[in-house]
Design a protein that fits this description.
By secondary structure, the protein is an alpha+beta fold. It is built from 20 helices and 15 strands. The chain is about 35% helix and about 15% strand. It is elongated, with a radius of gyration of 35 Å.
Amino acid sequence: MPDPRSSPVQPTLDDLGTPLSDVTFVVVDLETTGGSPSAAAITEVGAVKVRGGQVLGEFQTLVNPGGPVPAQITALTGISTAMVATAPGIGSVLPAFLEFARGAVLVAHNARFDVGFLKAAARDLGHPWPGFAVLDTVALARRAVTRDEVPNHKLGTLAAFFHATVTPDHRALSDARATVDVLHALLGRLGPLGVTHLEDLATATDPVPAARRRKRHLADGLPDGPGVYQFVDARGEVLYVGTATSIRRRVRSYFTAAEHRRRMTEMVGLAERVVPVVCGTVLEARVRELRLIAEHAPRYNRRSRFPERMPWVRLTAEPFPRLSVVREVRADGDRVEAHVGPFAGRAAAQRAVEALQATFDLRRCTTRLPRIPAAAASACALAGMGRCAAPCVGGVDAAGYGELVDRVRAAMVSDPGPVVAHHAERIAALAGQERFEEAAAVRDRLDAFLRGAARAQRATRAAQQAQLLAARPHDGGWELVVVRHGRLAATATSPRGVHPRAVLDTLVATAEHVAPPRAPATAAHPEETELVLSWLEEPGVRLVEVDDGWECPVRGAEAFREPGAVAAAVHHGPSVPVAGRDRPANRGTPALRDARDAAPQCALAAPGTA
């Protein structure tokens, strides 16, 4: 395997936003005794330094290769052994060239060859390679000049095509001068395609449609920081909303070969401007993205557009309750019955219903039943199969049915163990009969219920918090967050050397007022609440202030959120330690365990004392 330090692969150009007219290029050409750095040596170095179309300086010298120059090389270049016998060696030439080229972008025609020899010489001499940005005019020419215009992309061919002032003749300085003219001509061609800045050169050779590349100007002037960006068309319609740690860099990627999604190409074609929203923290950016998507429902966003379409599974409030799929959390008087969810779609919600119905003999009919069965009432087929308690015909009285409902409510709200146990037994039986597809369907049904129950339990905990304050170390300071009823009410960062308490007090005073929701629904988009909760569980996050109720059920469904937990429970039963850990499967995340053991008011240290 070749030494990676000697690999002549073009390095990445930094996203500096520098106009090409302000960039210093050093166009270099070498003459050598052969084609491989491992078996040949440099005989001549020629370079031209240019900026803004003006020549700033030139560098040219013969180099003693330390051996004879092959006859065929002499015939090609005119450089003989006698000519280089008294020339300086590469040990003297290389440091001088590197000083000449310092801070510039190296340009060469077939840069792999020239830069490869220079890097190999630096390695052999033990000289550190500065890590120049490198531009290859061959690659640029393949992008800007078609084969209908030129038969090939050799330097001589391109120099003649662009009427270069110097004709290349296989001497280093002449070839470098010719390459300068070719470079300027290529940049002139690429300019109308949006290649106008230094960072554009990194993707100038990508196979990007011209129409999309011309839209690169939409990224000009965008901030280089975290936030949200919105692609907007000529009518003002928001086409797409995204988030990034660097808005400018992310938007620029839509005009390169890195973006190959067909719908994004279509979206960029319609876009006329990009509206940035700078955010103080990455969490704020992600939350704002969700809110903007929910507000505008952009046609090119595929997720989070319609939070009102995320259904819940509800235990109805009537004499003989049943399970129902509903669009929102409903209250019955002052009471909110048990809910699980929300779910991504109705199909997932229905699977959760089936999981509960398979475990408990709840009625499945949708008619509202009276407390006293009607004389003409008749039982359904499920009752005959023993899969329904049949309160419609007096199969169970209100008190007995109430005990059944209490068990269902407990499974939904606090302990899914009976549902897991029933499905584990059923899956084992089906697998033993090699009915694997049916077993997979039962598994998916259980998984849907556990996901919905866990989400509801997490949401309930967040919804009950009128105000939660949290902090995380950030660049020597603190990232501060105010959460109210599961909604991000405010966030900011305190800089290094500033005590965060004063910043946090100001943040609390200016935070958004949030009205209490109906738990388990929170005051935010379900995905926003999940984003906030996930952030609170990240390493290093400290709960500064938290109300009572910041806890999870001991045997709750959240235990099954860990990877492999459902499979382990199905295999061993819900009471066995999950994922091989020697602990109950219900202690919750480290942040939750710490919060249960801590006082409601937690200490927030000054910067540097954490």
